[in-house]
Design goal:
Layout (H helix, E strand, L loop, with lengths): L3 E5 L7 H8 L5 E8 L6 E9 L2 H11 L3 E2 L2 E2 L1 E4 L13
Antiparallel strand pairs: 1-3, 1-6, 2-3, 4-5
């Protein structure tokens, strides 16, 4: 089980700090990151929160599902791990 949560439906104005503070009631937040567009720096409306333990992440996922942050209802789920890509061996 992952310790990293995907948070969707974030308002454009939500910052990393706002996201961190919203989830801190469930445990130790190691990282909170709102994903932004490269060119404009504008939020893409989703982010990730990583907890210190799996148990904290599970509690946060259940507790924050369908709650509001900055006036918008969010969706929270466990983040999918990136699949490992085969390495190209050039000899």
């Amino acid at each position: 089980m992952e310790k990293k949560l995907f948070v969707g439906g974030l308002p454009w104005a939500t910052s990393d700090d706002t996201l961190r503070k919203a989830f801190e009631e469930y445990g130790t937040v190691e990282e909170a990151n709102v994903v932004c567009e490269r060119d404009t720096g504008r939020s893409r409306g989703f982010g990730f929160v990583t907890f210190a333990t799996v148990e904290e992440a599970q509690a946060a996922q259940k507790g924050m599902q369908d709650r509001e942050i900055d006036g918008r209802q969010i969706k929270v789920d466990f983040a999918n791990s990136k699949p490992r890509r085969p390495r190209n061996d050039y000899e």
